[in-house]
């Protein structure tokens, strides 16, 4: 049995801000996420078609740092797809047929108590760096800054060292700087589903360092060339890097996966 586990933002779907970063426009794209009656994230029409084809032929599992509430704004998943699993909050939660799996949540809670500093402590320590921006929490599990100023390489290295010393890590994606405790991990969640379903072949896609956790267990790991992960050569060198950037990278990756599975039918 095969599975396609994929990150969403800046991998398969693109907000207006992400499109701006790549000098692209939503004009010719398909809206896939809606907030306050406004479409705010997009895919190419071909990418959406390919995703439907792929999900009809293997188990598709969205794997996102979004909370479940944020994930549900992606209306195409409710309207055009029928898949049982979704991994949200960076792996803290696995939803099966729309319901959070308590078995998995219990495993994560136990590890959080045993393996890392508390959320409140890390938030307090992060403020010692005087980061300019808005701080937000996600389901009292992790937090992130929406930065107002560019983060220098030296400051980033200092923050990485602090996070690592307390069992946390960071990911810098656009204006967002995430602080995530190590037990909250996309890779462990994907492995749990893989084992539960008896999967023997895994395709994966993701753009950030947080996606490395599950891409390293994939047989076919894809990375868009514009992302944090592609820039980190020490992590991304064994991965399949797209030629295109932005929304076209998502289309290219899906098209390649579709062609790959067609060749093996």
UniProtKB/TrEMBL annotation:
Gene source species: Sporosarcina globispora
InterPro entries on file: HAD-like_sf (IPR036412), HAD_sf (IPR023214), SPP-like_dom (IPR006380), TPP-like (IPR024197)
Name the UniProt record assigns to this protein: Sucrose phosphatase-like domain-containing protein
SUPFAM superfamilies, sorted: HAD-like
GO MF entries: catalytic activity
Annotated ranges, domain Sucrose phosphatase-like: 2-215
């Amino acid at each position: 049995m095969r599975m396609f586990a994929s990150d969403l933002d800046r991998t398969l779907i693109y907000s207006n801000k992400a499109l701006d970063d790549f000098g692209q426009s939503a004009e010719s794209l398909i809206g896939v996420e809606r907030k306050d009656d406004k479409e705010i994230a997009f895919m190419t029409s071909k990418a959406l078609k390919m995703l439907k084809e792929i999900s009809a032929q293997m188990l598709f599992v969205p794997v996102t740092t979004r909370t479940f509430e944020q994930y549900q704004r992606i209306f195409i998943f409710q309207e055009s797809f029928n898949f049982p699993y979704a991994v949200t909050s960076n792996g803290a939660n696995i939803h099966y047929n729309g319901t959070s799996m308590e078995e998995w949540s219990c495993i994560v809670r136990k590890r959080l108590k045993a393996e890392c500093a508390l959320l409140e402590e890390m938030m307090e320590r992060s403020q010692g760096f005087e980061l300019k921006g808005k701080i937000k929490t996600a389901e009292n599990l992790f937090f992130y800054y929406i930065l107002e100023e560019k983060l220098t390489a030296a400051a980033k290295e200092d923050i990485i060292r602090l996070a690592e010393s307390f069992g946390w890590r960071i990911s810098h994606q656009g204006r967002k700087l995430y602080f995530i405790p190590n037990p909250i991990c996309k890779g462990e969640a994907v492995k749990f589903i893989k084992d539960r379903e008896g999967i023997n072949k895994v395709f994966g896609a993701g753009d950030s360092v947080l996606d490395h956790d599950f891409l390293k267990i994939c047989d076919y790991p894809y990375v868009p060339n514009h992302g944090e992960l592609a820039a980190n050569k020490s992590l991304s060198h064994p991965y399949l890097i797209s030629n295109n950037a932005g929304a076209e990278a998502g289309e290219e990756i899906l098209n390649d996966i579709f062609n790959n599975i067609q060749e093996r039918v």
